[in-house]
Amino acid sequence: MSVVMFKWDKDYIHHLEKPNESYLVLDEYDIKTYNPSPEVISQFRKVYVISNNDSLEEIASIAVDIQCDDSSIDAVIPNGEFGVYGAGYLAQLLGFKGRLKQAQATRDKRLMKSQVKARGIATANYCSVPHSGECNPEQIERQLGYPVVVKPANGAGSRATFIARDRNELTRCIQLSRDSIRPPTHSKSLIIEQMIQGREYHVDALWHKGESLFFTISQYFDNRIEQVHDGFMDGAQMVHRSDAPSLYQQIEHLHHQVNDVFEIEDGFTHLEFFLTPQGDPVFSEIATRYGGGAIVPMLNEKFGVDVIEQAVNLAERREARSPDKLVEQAQYVAWMIVNVEQDGIVTSIPEQERLNEHKHIASYEMNVQVGDRVKKGCHPVFPLKIILTANSQSELNSAMAHCASTLKICTRAEL
């Protein structure tokens, strides 16, 4: 079986059974940011390096090259949201019908919301600010009121996202959002959304022929938009199915509706929604990729398997029968990111021995060292990822509060 991996993802690539039969497409951002191992990429049948993730001419040339090889491609896998457009275009050229439209609809939040709203799914009202255009404050105030959320239409996680509570803030936030857009995002188009009141959740699933191998709902500690405020806790706790069976039933129905809108049948999805004080779900957005932060290691802990390996197996083998659903292992789980509190040079990090001995820390990943130069909230590397487990909700709550108050990464300002 032959697949095309579009952009760098060491976890996906590590699990390929026969990379010598598959293709790898990287862009210059991948090379500069991740410095892929020559030993790893040399295992592929062919490796292509293009200038950026959505270079139409270069991607079209790759499609022809693969066809000249007489290769039968079983899947084109976009590694991360920034590979979705390019992978969709390449897949379409290789004969996968509908992939480019799906890529556009699951990346551009304006089209996404328009299509779900047309199917009667509750979502925020919005206004569009074109790539090079100016917004009409009167129209926004008339249609949306305040507060509103300003962010890139093509999304960058929660980056370049701001809240505006009046006209002056709206003008400032539009400029801030555009100024904050950096490669690999290129479009300067913005979406301005009605701000939904309620708690924010993320839903993570792996699909095979329209059925989920796993389906989890997690509640963010704090809504993502709140990360600009001091005291923001970065992470989420998984909602235990037995504690909220009606919520799971409600959101599984919602997700199948959304899948129908975007013709999603296979692979990972990461969906976000708000639950209003009245208990009504409001769709926020969906991505055809696995969730960021430390969501994957949380899923691994919950199910006792490597979920990325499961996804690669499905993509490579295309089994005729649907595989069994994954069985939950851990009871209560959460993921947490420990960020630096200010830009500068790292002066201290939590001791490894302390992390190893913490009875509720199932796993962690330390990505900074003393002496490193870091920026607050700067991706693609999170300073410290932590997975917490517990036997009860109250026990998990205590562990989360303890870690949030005691685990710190300290910095000093550069002179």
Fraction in beta strands: 25-35%
CATH topology of the largest domain: D-amino Acid Aminotransferase, Chain A, domain 1
Question: What's the end-to-end separation, in Å?
Answer: 54 Å
Name the structural class.
alpha+beta
Mean pLDDT, to the nearest integer, reads 91
Number of strands: 19
Q: Provide the spatial order of strands within the biggest beta sheet.
A: 13-12-9-10-11-14-18-16
Computed CA radius of gyration, to the nearest angstrom: 21 Å
What's the domain count? 4
- Approximate shape: globular
Query: How many helices does DSSP assign?
Result: 14
Biggest sheet, open or closed, and with what strands and sense?
8 strands, antiparallel
Q: Give the low-pLDDT segments.
A: none
Could you name the CATH homologous superfamily of the largest domain?
A: ATP-grasp fold, B domain
Domain ATP-grasp: 113-316
Protein name: ATP-grasp domain-containing protein
Pfam families: ATP-grasp_4
InterPro entries: ATP-dep_AA_Ligase (IPR052032), ATP-grasp (IPR011761), ATP_grasp_subdomain_1 (IPR013815)
